[in-house]
Task: inverse folding
């Protein structure tokens, strides 16, 4: 991976998942001996001027609180990752933020910086592979807040529905492949099979 420059933007790390399929808090699962949360926070902290960790279990993450990592709770709890994105954007110092799930071991921060550079006057920048979006490794601006908040209050949690009301710029597969294999970059951990697969991927990629 090329050395990504530091950007004047916020990195929002979402650690609110219940990990029901893992039976443990997946943020603390390990890939190649490194906890997922340590991996993601480390990468985001290297690139973003501000890092916000969103969790509804802050007592499990106080270890990570420091001058560069703020820990916050959902402002509208109980509505999934969209609640975390909403809280992060609301509390962010910067207008532009990268939202990323804590369970993605192969984040490509050069792609993250590229999306930050692309945002311009758009409300957000979202990777898209065919018909499938990657909402939890995407760039959002504070202009998204009214639409997200309205959707949460109506209990509408599907990101793709929200995109219809926003000016979203999509990054397509051909462009994503300039930075690596999308199946690797966007691999996330939902269960132990995903964890095992990630261990296999470690041997094939340099992240």
Result:
């Amino acid at each position: 991976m090329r050395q990504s420059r530091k950007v004047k933007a916020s990195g929002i790390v979402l650690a609110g998942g219940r990990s029901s399929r893992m039976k443990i808090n997946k943020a603390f699962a390990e890939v190649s001996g490194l906890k997922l949360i340590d991996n993601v926070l480390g990468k985001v902290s290297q690139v973003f001027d501000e890092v916000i960790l969103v969790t509804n279990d802050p007592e499990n993450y106080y270890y990570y609180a420091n001058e560069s990592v703020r820990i916050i709770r959902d402002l509208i709890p109980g509505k999934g990752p969209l609640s975390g994105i909403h809280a992060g954007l609301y509390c962010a110092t910067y207008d532009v933020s990268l939202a990323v799930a804590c369970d993605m071991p192969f984040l490509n921060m050069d792609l993250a910086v590229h999306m930050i550079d692309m945002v311009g006057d758009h409300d957000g920048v979202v990777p898209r592979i065919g018909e499938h979006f990657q909402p939890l490794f995407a760039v959002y601006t504070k202009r998204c807040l009214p639409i997200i908040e309205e959707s949460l209050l109506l209990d509408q949690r599907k990101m793709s529905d929200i995109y219809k009301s926003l000016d979203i710029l999509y990054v397509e597969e051909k462009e994503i492949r300039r930075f690596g294999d999308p199946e690797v970059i966007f691999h996330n951990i939902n269960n132990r099979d995903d964890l095992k697969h990630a261990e296999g991927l470690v041997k094939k990629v340099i992240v």
